[in-house]
Write a structure and sequence with these properties.
CATH superfamily of the largest domain: Winged helix-like DNA-binding domain superfamily/Winged helix DNA-binding domain
Largest sheet: 2 strands, antiparallel
Number of domains: 2
Pfam families: GntR
InterPro entries: Tscrpt_reg_HTH_GntR, WH-like_DNA-bd_sf, WH_DNA-bd_sf
Shape: globular
Strand content: 5-15%
Keywords: DNA-binding, Transcription, Transcription regulation
Distance between the termini: 32 Å
CATH topology of the largest domain: Arc Repressor Mutant, subunit A
Domain HTH gntR-type: 17-85
CATH class of the largest domain: Mainly Alpha
Organism: Eubacterium ramulus ATCC 29099
Radius of gyration: 16 Å
């Protein structure tokens, strides 16, 4: 069997953010920063749950959400693998919907357009 991806995942058990969302987000950041690549096989649900010290159902939920988002797929032989969905228009629309809420919240707090652009450039630079 092929080697599975070695993942460095840090869960903040004191965070208000759900554990499966933390795990999902860290996998997304790993893909965006090229720590994880198209075709990489992820650890099994049981293995990752044991490594992180969380419930298997939590890992399964994170993997399930990532599959729904078009970032993972199940392979009969290799298990869960990174498989980036090339549906760019759908991804752009989802991003637009998420940004709409985030930007509205920032607008209510007095964050300027220039500050938003600076933040976007700063964050986007992390993925280049």
């Amino acid at each position: 069997m092929e080697d599975r991806l070695q993942m460095t995942i840090e869960i903040d058990f004191n965070s208000d953010e759900a554990l499966y969302i933390q795990l999902r987000n860290q996998i997304i950041y790993g893909i965006a920063t090229q720590q994880y690549h198209e075709g990489d096989a992820l650890p099994s649900v049981r293995q990752l749950a044991d490594e992180i010290g969380i419930n298997m159902h939590t890992v399964n939920k994170a993997y399930s959400v990532l599959r729904q988002e078009g970032l993972l797929r199940l392979d009969r032989r290799r298990g869960t693998v990174i498989a980036l969905d090339i549906d760019r228009l759908k991804a752009e629309e989802e991003m637009r919907d998420a940004l709409r809420v985030i930007l509205a919240r920032g607008f209510c707090k007095g964050i300027t357009r220039a500050e938003v652009h600076e933040l976007v450039d700063e964050i986007f630079h992390e993925y280049e």
